[in-house]
Design goal:
By secondary structure, the protein is an alpha+beta fold.
Length: 482
């Protein structure tokens, strides 16, 4: 190499000493983006890599479930006539009399089993699900489930969300989700708006790597071009992941509260009980019963047939979850669970004694924010568009792994190789770029950054850590002899 170290992002020679910050405002903004992209990539990329690999495995949880739990999830032979829910519930309770009935989930496909969910005190928040052949009413097996998920899916979900480290482990995934969109956005701006060369002036130059290039330029072209193709999917994963994170998820919940963007609640109070409830101060008004409490006695199995028949008559098709009333003054609930597009999330409250629907909520009545939130979660989990959704997520996850690899490879390729200046890693981009920012950018950017850090607290804390590290590095270098 020459006696100078070439800054591969700005393509200008810089001396080994700390150079002066750029003078042009545009150059200052670009230099700041380069430094932010570099530090975020170096320190956050390991979190992104773990999230990508664990998410890739979780994407195919439905297929793994069928492979591991096929005996419980599928029937031996698809029959012509489905037995009444009352017979299936009775068979499940005969085989498993422990606990109490929480709900029954009808089969999603003809080859699927019926799920009879039991609340068992010793399982705490988890439940025992008994799988029944809907054509023969024979029990196929049982599993300890969590929110309807099998043990394998629950294990993979926790691996992706918190690495099985509990609330502390959730910070890893929130760091990844908080910084992913920042890294992607910064990379897009740098790649599309780079000052050198003519490739950015054509779509081909932006979307395809430069195979004629060599060394770090070739690696960077693969890194950037692949990032462009993945950008939309990565933005989606970042946004949807943040909605159910710990700290940013709380902020999102506050936004839904302020915008009245929550899903409508189903009124499960029976009409005859309403005057008494209103006289008592409306304690049960608007309450949605989900059967979460442990009941001393099971309801009549025939009531499941009555609730299902009323729901079907009301227009609820597909797979549904039938939940007994939580108390004598409440109705039963029947909720659709069709997660594949076009989704169906209607639900009704049923008075099983009269066989009538007393209230309903429709998917069409959901606020726009509630719809986006619900669909985003299903898309993030890979179930919204079936196998196509899974394949797209797998491609995005593998692409993120490659982009991360190429990013670290660039860092290594940019290392000084002269004997008197040899280093194991590449030089960080120029410091002090923020001092060259125009005043309007600083005046408008500071409040915007503060608001962003409030909405994404983990982003704010880690960004502050980057700034402290940057200042510390600068002080150490200044203290060294020239």
């Amino acid at each position: 190499m020459s006696s100078t170290i070439i800054d591969q992002e700005q393509q200008r020679p810089v001396s080994p000493a700390e150079p002066a910050p750029p003078r042009r405002p545009r150059q200052a903004v670009r230099a700041l983006l380069v430094r932010l992209h570099f530090y975020a990539g170096v320190f956050v990329a390991p979190f992104l890599l773990v999230a990508a690999l664990t998410g890739l495995i979780y994407t195919f949880a439905p297929q793994l479930d069928q492979l591991v739990y096929g005996d419980q999830l599928r029937v031996e032979r698809v029959g012509e006539q489905v037995r009444p829910l009352s017979e299936q519930v009775a068979a499940a309770r005969a085989a498993h009399p422990e606990g109490s009935l929480a709900s029954v989930v009808t089969p999603a496909e003809p080859e699927d089993t019926t799920r009879v969910v039991l609340s068992v005190p010793e399982l705490d928040e988890k439940q025992r699900t008994v799988f029944v052949d809907p054509y023969t009413a024979k029990v196929r097996g049982e599993l300890t489930t969590s929110w309807g998920s099998t043990p394998l899916t629950s294990w993979l979900s926790d691996l992706h969300k918190n690495l099985h480290l509990g609330e502390t482990g959730r910070l890893y995934s929130e760091v990844a989700a908080s910084w992913l969109w920042v890294i992607v956005a910064g990379g897009l701006v740098l790649w599309i708006g780079r000052a050198r060369g003519q490739r950015a002036k054509s779509p081909r130059g932006v979307l395809l790597p430069d195979r004629a290039a060599r060394g770090v330029r070739r690696t960077r072209s693969f890194h950037a071009a692949t990032g462009v193709w993945l950008a939309l999917g990565l933005f989606f994963l970042s946004a949807t992941g943040l909605t159910w994170s710990h700290y940013s998820g709380d902020r999102f919940g506050q936004l839904l509260d302020a915008a009245k963007g929550h899903a409508p609640e189903l009124d499960t109070l029976l009409p005859g009980a309403r005057p008494a409830a209103e006289a008592a101060g409306g304690e049960h008004a608007g309450h949605v019963g989900h059967g979460g409490a442990h009941k001393s006695a099971d309801p009549d199995p025939a009531a499941f047939d009555a609730a299902l028949a009323a729901a079907r008559k009301s227009g609820l098709g597909g797979t549904v979850q039938v939940t007994p009333a939580v108390d004598p003054s409440s109705a039963w609930t029947v909720a659709q669970k069709d997660n594949v597009w076009p989704v169906h999330y209607d639900q009704v409250a049923v008075d099983t004694a009269m066989g009538e629907v007393t209230a309903h909520t429709r998917w069409a009545d959901y606020p726009l924010l509630a719809k986006f939130s619900k669909l985003g979660v299903q898309g993030h989990m890979g179930v919204l568009f079936g196998i196509v959704n899974q394949i797209v997520l797998a491609v995005v996850a593998l692409g993120l792994v490659l982009v991360t690899f190429w990013g670290y490879r660039m860092w290594w390729q940019r290392r000084p190789t002269r004997e008197d200046r040899a280093a194991r890693l590449g030089k960080a981009p120029t410091r002090g770029a923020w001092r060259g920012l125009p005043l309007p950018v600083l005046v408008l950017g500071a409040p915007a950054l503060a608001a962003l850090c409030w909405a994404l607290p983990v982003l704010g804390v880690t960004l502050l850590a980057f700034l402290v590290l940057d200042v510390a590095i600068g002080l150490v270098r200044r203290a060294r002899p020239a």
